[in-house]
Task: inverse folding
């Protein structure tokens, strides 16, 4: 195992500064690992020339004591639905297979300004429509925790940001950016044994993130530990004049001594009873209860709470998702950019053939369904009603976080499962439709997107099958500091590190 892989980002930066480790050497190792582990299919495109150039520039800055930030020289990866200037951005779809953006997404711009080194663009479900990273034109991503990577005996990485989660879990990079619309960061983080953060809606700019559902999309962060997650969030969060949905007040960088002087006696933890749902496996339930007991035994106030509209959440999410998809996908018509069919005799035929060739079945199904919901005769029955129930779901969270009644205490964080089980086998996963997969895989995660609140998945332990099990923490809007403090405390207690596991070590060797 390469020594630098065991370091946090802060430790790596300190090693760069004292000259004990070279940024160029670390970048070389990252590129070598990306090639050596290409059978995982975590990357759609690796950018070695760009990476080596950035690594060399970083080394010169350290030599001249001019490092840009704690992230200077740190290898990262970006999900392939974030625009990267002069680097192909495909959304894992035939529609954008040759699309080269002329600008960087704000997230990419801010990471580059911090000195990070981009290893490459990661695999995903087409246009982020999925929960397994199995619907990419570049093939599915495999979970590095799989006991058998041959044929269809391997486990899914989760989705839609499975490539980013796998790149971090495999130790190729220290951090990766994903997107989270209904759990697309937290779901693969849980399956791959890494930390996955979905910030408050509007805390991180969506400019340059190719949209799926504008009202729910949030750039997400993957790291191997909570401390690294804070460093990445500090670099990318804050107002952006190019995105009118970002929160306008300046972002105060988080500086947390995670394992020092954190008193759980002042923390109230809610356990939502509705998340003890059908399909929740015994192992996940036991993990959930053990961590709740751990918090209580160390002074936290743990109590059951109710989020009564959770049961309706997945149906509301499905309707709103498909309605916004229908609107967002209308731009892909073969005229302005993207794939264009040829030899058509009319504009209508050009549109039809372009979209038939460029989109897969999942995307086309969501477009058709969304347009059905938006028909004049159906608009009030489906779309408007879903918006009203979405408000009820958000009010459930507001009640437990902000407006207690009948002498109830305000809850600081909610503790829930992230997924209902460990990572499914690929063969089992694809036996269900995309809609059914997402209904199961996103049950615990998508309510946070509809409410716009921050949520994080942290790895806890391994299942009997040797696969990671993660738990989710949620908190009120802009309460990332408390969320990350509690996550960091739990992390210190369970001491889960994917790169210290023999299984991961063997897969990398």
Result:
């Amino acid at each position: 195992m390469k020594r630098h892989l065991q370091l946090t980002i802060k430790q790596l930066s300190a090693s760069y500064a004292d000259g004990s480790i070279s940024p160029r050497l670390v970048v070389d190792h990252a590129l070598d690992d990306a090639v050596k582990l290409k059978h995982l299919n975590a990357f759609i495109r690796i950018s070695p020339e760009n990476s080596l150039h950035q690594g060399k520039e970083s080394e010169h800055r350290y030599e001249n004591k001019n490092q840009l930030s704690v992230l200077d020289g740190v290898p990262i990866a970006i999900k392939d639905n974030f625009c990267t200037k002069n680097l192909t951005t495909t959304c894992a779809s035939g529609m954008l297979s040759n699309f080269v953006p002329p600008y960087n997404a704000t997230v990419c711009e801010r990471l580059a300004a911090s000195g990070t080194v981009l290893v490459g663009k990661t695999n995903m479900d087409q246009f982020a429509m999925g929960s397994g990273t199995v619907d990419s034109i570049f093939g599915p991503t495999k979970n590095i925790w799989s006991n058998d990577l041959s044929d269809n005996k391997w486990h899914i990485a989760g989705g839609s940001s499975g490539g980013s989660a796998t790149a971090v879990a495999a130790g190729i990079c220290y951090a990766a950016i994903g997107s989270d619309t209904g759990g697309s960061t937290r779901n693969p983080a849980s399956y791959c044994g890494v930390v996955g953060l979905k910030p408050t809606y509007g805390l991180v700019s969506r400019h340059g993130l190719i949209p799926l559902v504008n009202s729910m999309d949030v750039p997400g962060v993957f790291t191997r530990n909570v401390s690294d997650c804070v460093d990445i969030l500090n670099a990318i969060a804050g107002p952006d004049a190019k995105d009118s949905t970002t929160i306008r007040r300046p972002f105060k960088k988080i500086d947390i001594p995670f394992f020092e002087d954190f008193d759980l006696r002042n923390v109230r933890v809610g356990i939502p009873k509705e998340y003890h749902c059908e399909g929740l496996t015994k192992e996940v339930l036991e993990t959930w209860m053990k961590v709740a007991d751990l918090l209580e035994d160390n002074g936290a106030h743990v109590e059951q709470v109710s989020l009564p509209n959770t049961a309706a959440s997945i149906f509301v999410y499905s309707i709103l998702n498909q309605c916004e998809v229908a609107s967002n996908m209308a731009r892909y018509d073969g005229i302005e950019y993207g794939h264009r069919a040829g030899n058509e005799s009319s504009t209508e035929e050009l549109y039809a053939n372009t979209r038939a060739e460029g989109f897969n079945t999942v995307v086309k199904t969501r477009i058709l369904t969304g347009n059905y919901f938006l028909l004049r005769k159906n608009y009030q029955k489906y779309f408007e009603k879903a918006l009203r129930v979405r408000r009820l779901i958000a009010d459930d969270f507001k009640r437990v976080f902000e407006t207690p009644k009948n002498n109830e205490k305000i809850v600081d964080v909610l503790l829930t499962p992230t997924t209902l089980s460990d990572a499914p086998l690929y063969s089992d996963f694809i036996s269900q439709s995309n809609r059914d997969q997402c209904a199961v895989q996103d049950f615990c995660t998508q309510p946070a997107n509809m409410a716009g609140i921050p949520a994080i998945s942290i790895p806890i332990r391994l299942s009997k099958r040797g696969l990671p099990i993660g738990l989710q923490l949620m908190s009120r809007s802009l309460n990332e500091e408390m969320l990350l403090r509690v996550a960091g405390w739990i992390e210190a207690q369970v001491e889960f590190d994917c790169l210290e596991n023999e299984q991961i070590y063997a897969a990398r060797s």
Observations:
- The chain has a mean pLDDT of 94.
